[in-house]
Amino acid sequence: MKKAAIPAMIPTHDAIRRRKQALRAEARRRRVALPEKELLSRAIWKRLLALPEYERARRVVLYIDHRSEVRTWPYLSDVWRSGRQIAVPYCEGGRLGLFRLEHVDELEPGALGILEPRLELRQDSGRAIWLEASDLLIIPGVAFDRQGGRIGQGAGYYDRLLASAPAGAAFVGVAFQCQLVEAIPLLPHDVRMHKVVTENTVYEVPALR
Question: What does the pLDDT look like over 168-196, one tens digit per residue?
Fold first, then answer.
């Protein structure tokens, strides 16, 4: 008598979170230990600037690097010189707001130590950026996979931001090659990237285009 097939177990939310935490810890360890981050960041930026999404973009949402992340600070002036606007994120009440940055002197360390626009400048409604007006979002992460999966710091700030982005906006994750993992288990609220750029190559996710 033929035995009935045993159905595959579907991972629980807790199991997925534990797996993501393990992947986060390992990818962060590799990133911290990585030498020559400035040199590798330059190679990543060269690939970014060649993307058609960057060529089309007039307004770029761009994080300010912190600790061992892919460097963005040295390349702010390149974006400004190209005639594009830069919108930088900042934390406020459990969400990310966006601010039109015009000069690096407008930044100061926030509650998490990350450079953010000064509090008094955020009160200027003319400097607030609506997500709907953004063409390209360059997103940091602790780990990525080749299918556009992303693991952040664990607070969900970027997932909430990206869930409200317009359909035409491009999500591009940037990471060092050592941060790439085979597969990231995703929860329903997790948002995939359209592309992931490393110093070695650009990973495209055609199913999301």
Answer: 899 999 999 999 999 999 998 899 999 99
CB 192 within 8 A of CB 28: no
87-120 residue pLDDT tens:
999 999 889 999 999 999 999 999 789 999 999 9
Q: What is the pTM of this model?
A: 0.92
Long-range contacts of 155-159 (CB under 8 A, 24+ apart): 156/189, 157/89, 157/91, 157/94, 157/95, 157/96, 158/96, 158/191, 159/189, 159/190, 159/191
Tell the residue number behind the tokens 């981050």, with chain if given.
37
Q: For the residues of 75-86, what is the DSSP string, one character each?
A: GHHHHHHTT-EE
What is the separation, in whole angstroms, between the first and last Cα of the chain? 48
**Structural domains in the chain, sorted by start:** 57-208 (3.40.50.10420)
Distances from the Cα of 162 to the Cαs of 19, 57, 166, in angstroms?
A: 23, 17, 9
Token pair listed for 29 = 């360890």
